[in-house]
Design brief:
- By secondary structure, the chain is α/β, with parallel strands linked by helices.
- It has two domains: 2-97 and 189-229, ATPase, nucleotide binding domain (Nucleotidyltransferase, domain 5); 105-185, Nucleotidyltransferase, domain 5.
- It is built from seven helices and ten strands.
- The chain has helices spanning 38-52, 72-89, 98-103, 150-160, 170-177, 191-204, 222-229; strands spanning 2-7, 13-19, 26-33, 62-66, 93-96, 112-119, 122-131, 139-149, 164-167, 183-185.
- The strands form two sheets. Strands 3-2-1-4-5 form a five-stranded mixed β-sheet, with helices on both faces.
- α5 links the parallel β9 (164-167) and β10.
- α1 crosses α2.
- The radius of gyration is 18 Å and the shape is globular.
- It starts with a strand and ends with a helix.
């Protein structure tokens, strides 16, 4: 199965083409997209990547998308592209949250926590546990993903006692270390990780419809908060 993965959740983004199925998962190539150019560069970059390797959009077997949390504008661009392709090509969609992509990095046994700095003295937190897959590849099962105050974040970590916390934000790592939680500071997840997790989901039939595809913001936008306050 030829898989296309898109991640436009961060300040920069990327597209990955990968193969999965009868043979082990393999990244064919990834292409970065600079921040601020998602809407202008995503489709041309995708077309160039497919053409470079002798494929067309019709060759795609499945789509994977980073659903957030992340940039409101960036996520909308990436998910709109995935929706458009899925509608035209009638291909399945797998969604991958940025937090579960972070958790993928950990090699620890037991529950894993993944977190991102959400600003406003808040933290995006996800808790995951090991899961078995048909091909016996390492995987995780989401227990919860939520937006917490820093104090509630520390309380949750003390209650859950994860084997490790994975984060790409130094501020979160320092906060968790103060509670005695083992921390792994890593680079932010990218489209290759989204492709890897997405491939597992696609092959397992863990997919969603075009209508159900939406961003996992965890927090409402400033505009929505302001409008409801008025």
């Amino acid at each position: 199965m030829l898989i296309l993965a898109i991640d436009t959740s961060g300040q920069s983004g990327g597209i990955t083409l990968a193969q999965a199925g009868e043979k082990p998962f393999r990244v064919i190539e990834s292409a970065p997209i600079a921040g601020g150019t998602f809407s202008a560069q995503l489709i041309p970059t995708l077309a160039a990547l497919l053409s470079k390797h002798g494929y067309s959009a019709k060759d795609l077997g499945g789509l994977a998308a980073a659903s957030g949390p992340g940039s409101f504008t960036g996520l909308r661009v990436g998910l709109s592209a995935i929706k458009g392709l899925a509608e035209v090509l009638s291909k399945p969609i797998a969604v991958v949250t940025v937090l579960e992509a972070l958790a993928e990095v950990s090699e620890q046994a037991g529950k894993i926590a993944a977190a991102l700095d959400a600003g406003r003295s808040e933290v995006f937190l996800g808790i995951y546990e090991p899961a078995n897959t048909a091909d016996h590849q390492p995987s995780t099962h989401m227990l919860t993903e939520e937006l917490l105050s820093q104090s509630a974040f520390l309380e949750k970590l003390r209650h859950v006692s994860p084997a490790e916390l994975v984060t790409s934000d130094r501020s979160v790592a320092e906060l968790a270390s103060s509670a005695g939680i083992p921390v792994q500071l890593v680079s932010r997840s990218n489209s290759e990780t989204v492709a890897k997790i997405g491939a597992r989901k696609l092959l397992a039939g863990d997919v969603i419809s075009v209508e159900a595809l939406d961003a996992n913001y965890l927090r409402r936008s400033d505009a929505e908060i302001f409008f409801k306050a008025k």
